[in-house]
Design brief:
single chain; mainly alpha; hpI Integrase, Chain A; three-stranded antiparallel β-sheet; two-stranded antiparallel sheet
Length: 228
């Protein structure tokens, strides 16, 4: 069964994150991104006008569209300015390229220098690409956000085994709780089969499968138990 956080637990974890790690966690929760989908997000796939994110080559080599939280727009614009500064610095040093899918790198040899193709979360250091043997900038390693979330969860004293993927689980479950239909959530998550998405119906705000315990329907039981 998926690990799902309550709204309060999500908030407790986010309050203990900052900067790029906070933004990553917000995107995983607010857009239902997997951790590697978040790491591989490129600037061209963020649509401010339509307020959506295009997830390229997700699990199963599928593309999909997911919502871009409006509250994150200022932080995203600030993040893009930071990416521009990193790119400008690399260009000044005689570099300025990012890693590209092999076929696209051959078809569009100049695209690696274009800002649109840069990662929203580029790596802290340049590296040598094993395929092209060129010095370029890759995306940030996923261990950065994984460690940050682990530390935040520990600081928040959560008893649940929360990982980065729990943000995606919480995204789906909270949409269900808000009344969103299961088919739409299936599309947002990129699931092939709705049965995979149906697992999130196990919590709808009232415990396992949304079933009300029979003891809760007998209002006199707690009082009688207390007298006993």
């Amino acid at each position: 069964m998926p690990v799902v956080m309550t709204h309060e637990e999500v908030q407790a974890v986010l309050q203990r994150l900052s900067g790029r790690e906070w933004l990553m966690a917000c995107l995983m929760y607010g857009s239902g991104l997997r951790v590697m989908e978040c790491m591989r997000l490129r600037l061209k796939d963020i649509d401010f006008g339509l307020k959506q994110i295009m997830v390229r080559d997700g699990k199963g080599q599928k593309d999909r569209v997911t919502p871009l939280p409006e509250t994150l727009l200022p932080a995203l614009r600030q993040r893009i300015e930071e990416v521009k500064r990193v790119r400008d610095s690399d260009l000044a040093d005689g570099y300025g390229e990012v890693s590209m899918p092999y076929a696209l790198a051959r078809k569009y040899p100049n695209a690696a220098r274009e800002l649109a193709w840069w990662y929203l979360f580029p790596a802290s250091h340049r590296c040598r690409d094993p395929y092209s043997d060129r010095i370029l900038r890759h995306h940030l390693d996923e261990s950065v956000i994984q460690r940050a979330v682990k530390t935040a969860v520990r600081s928040a004293n959560l008893a649940k085994p929360v990982s980065c993927h729990a943000f995606r689980h919480s995204f789906a479950t909270h949409l269900l709780m808000a009344g969103q239909d299961i088919r739409t959530i299936q599309e947002l998550l990129g699931h092939n089969d709705v049965s995979t998405t149906m697992i999130y119906t196990h919590v709808l705000g009232r415990g396992a499968r949304g079933v009300v315990s029979p003891v809760d329907s007998m209002l006199s039981v707690p009082a009688e138990g207390a007298r006993a």
